[in-house]
Design brief:
The protein is mostly helical and 110 residues long. It has one domain. The chain contains three helices and two strands; from the N terminus they run αββαα. Strands 1-2 form a two-stranded antiparallel sheet. It is globular and about 45 Å long.
Length: 110
């Protein structure tokens, strides 16, 4: 099964060195859907997701948000949880986990 990935020109990924709270407004979500040409009626099949998750210090910027098909969101969650657990346990550096998310799910280095 080929997974959907974000367009790296629109969503290259973005992260910082310290975590931030989730703050994605309705207008930001609408902008993401607009950038990806997803019309109003198709939006129910997507969730606006962080390419680099907040748990790995991803940002809430448009550069880090993309419309992920809902049917695939659980698969990405598994990678997010695995990498965040490794970082918090001291088994992996944060920067390495951020890069692995970008490699696994698309985008480019921030």
């Amino acid at each position: 099964m080929k997974l959907a990935k974000p367009n790296p020109k629109i969503t290259p990924g973005d992260y910082i060195s310290t975590p931030q709270p989730r703050l994605v407004t309705s207008s930001m979500k609408a902008k993401v859907f607009e950038l990806y040409n997803i019309g109003l009626f198709r939006r129910i099949f997507y969730t606006v997701d962080h390419l680099v998750p907040l748990e790995l210090c991803g940002t809430n910027s448009i550069r880090n948000l993309w419309p992920q098909p809902k049917k695939e969101a659980r698969l990405k969650d598994l990678d997010e949880n695995r990498l965040a657990t490794a970082v918090h346990a001291g088994k992996m550096k944060l920067a390495d986990a951020q890069q692995e998310m970008l490699q696994l799910w698309g985008g480019s280095a921030a």
